[in-house]
Each structure stands twice: as C-alpha cells, then as structure tokens.
Amino acid sequence: MFKIDENEKLIKVYRKHPFYITLEFVILGIVAILPFFFLSFFNFLLKTNSLKVVYLYMFFYFIFLAILWAVAFVSWTNYYLDMWVLTDKRLISVDQKGLFSREISSLRLDRIQDVKVEVHGFIDTFLHIGSVHIQTAGAEKEFVMHNAKSPNQIREKILYLHNNQIEAIKTVRLQP
Amino acid sequence: MQENIMNINTPEMFGSGFMIDFSLSDILLSIPAEIWWIIFFVAILLFGILTIVLIYHWNKYSFHSPAIYITQIIYIIGIIAVMVLAGSMLLIYNS
After folding, report:
1. Which helix (H) or strand (E) holds A156?
2. Which residues of A touch B76 (CB under 8 A)?
3. Cβ-contact A170, A124 below 8 angstroms
4. Cα distance between residue A30 and residue A51, in whole Å
5. Is A157 left (phi over 0), alpha (psi -120 to 50) or beta?
6. Of A14, A153, B13, B84, whose CB has the highest number of CB atoms within 10 Å?
7. Shortest Cα distance from B1 to chain A (angstroms)?
8. pTM for the whole thing?
C-alpha cells in the first residue's frame, strides 16, 4: 500500500465522519423492509391456491437480503479505506474509489501554503462535518477531504505540524 | 360503465379479465425447481467471489486494525446465515 519511513512518526489517521455511512446503512435497512410493503400493495398479483409459493418468495427475499448485506459491506469498505494518514513529515491521502480503484498521493508538510475548511448546511454544522482543502506550493493538485470529522481540529493539527516542520528545516539550515 | 372501460383498455389477446386472472405466483410455480437451484448456486458463487475480494481488501489495506477483524466475522456470519436460510426455503419448497 504505502510505507512510512523509519524516521517518520505516525501522528493520526483521519477518516470521514461516520454520519454518512450510518445514513447509508439506515437507507439499506429501509430497503430491506420495502418488499413487505409492496406485498400488501400488489397482493392481487401474488394470489394463488398453493401455500408452497410462500417459500419461494422467502427464497427471493433472502437472496435480496444477501445482496443488501454485500452492498452494505462494500460501502463500509469504501468508507474505512478512504483516509488521510498524517505523519510528522507528510500527509498521505488514500482515496478509495470502489473496490478496484484507489489513489494514493502524499504531500510534504513543509510545502503546505494554506489549509481551508468548508462547512455547509445545518447537519454538517451541528455534527462538525466539513471539507478540508489543502493548497500546496507549486502545481500539485489540491488535497481535499470531503465530509471530514471535526475539520477545524484537522486544520489546526496540520498547521501545527507544518510550523514544526518549517522550524526544523530552519534549524538544520542555521547549523554550521 | 366500469366493465366497458376494462374492455377498451385491455389488450384483446388477454381478454377482459386479464388483471383479475393474472397471478405471478402461478407463473413462478410453473417454472421447474431446477432453475431456482441454478439461481441459488450462481448466487453462492457470486457472493463467494465478492467475499474473497472483500477479505483481500480488508487484509491488504487495513493496517491490521481490530475493526477489520470484527467486520470480517460479522460479514461472514451474516452472508452464510442468509444463504443458508435461502437454501432452506428452497429445500422446503421442493419437498
């Protein structure tokens, strides 16, 4: 995946706020009970003299549940493997896009120029969810983490480590 | 009046009592049981492949986090339970 150097210290691993993955699970839960509502609406389609067919419907329902179960865990995998790894020297962004696509990029903390936090909407404000944008020196792409948990804390931590890194570089340069 | 509307809106080939006579259950019952077993085994195969892919991802990219081990246990227990229930329903249907 990626390796952290021996002289590099892992500070923290940041993930997205669990609110949105919880919301996905709730939606999947609602979808799981939808067939029972449809059953009452489309009862006229299902009418039969044989009770045996009930087991066939239950078979379909369990296959449907298995699909939902798998979808839930694929979503969870995307949530859990999508992260920012902050070390004392670098910020590593792991962008999980589905099961077979991932993008890993890293950024030296001393190259950071600006860290911006965006919070929009009532839920995001209330639950401290926001986007963290990191602007770097040079033509490198902007680092963005959407739906981050406590974005202001992330920003402060990154800026603190950035300042430490700049001080460390200055100290090394001043040594005879 | 209502009967006239039904006669106008129902295709001739189905007859005027099409919606009243139509039963999805009877159609499903007319399908041979072997087809349902084939669907079941194909589903087992697909879920098996997906399980291998998920476990591979979890073990390769997870930093050996305890949350991943718990997730694997929950996922495997859940998928096996649901597939066993599906298979049981098919067995009862065939008996």
Report:
1. helix A151-174
2. none
3. no
4. 27
5. alpha
6. A14
7. 22
8. 0.79
**Could you give the 3-state DSSP secondary structure of residue B30?**
helix
Distance of CA A61 to the CA centre of its chain: 30
Give me A94's structure tokens.
């792991």
Per-residue pLDDT tens digits for B41-63: 999 999 999 999 888 888 887 66
Cα angle: A57, vertex A58, A60; to 5 degrees: 65
pLDDT at position A132: 92
Contact B54 A81 (CB under 8 A): no
Q: For chain A, say whether B77 makes contact (Cβ under 8 Å).
A: no
| Bridge partners, A91 (sequence order) | A86, A107
Q: Is A2 at the interface with chain B, CB within 8 A?
A: no
**Cβ pair A55:B79 closer than 8 A:** no
Beta strand ranges found along A49-111 (DSSP E): 83-87, 90-96, 102-108
In whole angstroms, give the CA distance from residue A150 to residue A125: 10
Minimal Cβ distance to A46: which of B24, B36, B50 = B24
What is the ipTM metric for this complex? 0.76
Would you list the DSSP string of B33-46?
HHHHHHHHHHHHHH
Per-residue DSSP letter, A141: P
CB contact under 8 A, A58 and B89: yes
Classify strands A10-15 and A83-87 as parallel, antiparallel or unpaired: antiparallel
Q: Which of B55, B56, B61 to substitute to test the interface with A, most A CBs within 10 Å?
A: B61
Model confidence at B24: pLDDT above 60: yes
Task: Enumerate residues 6+ apart whose C-beta is below 8 A from A24.
Answer: A72, A75
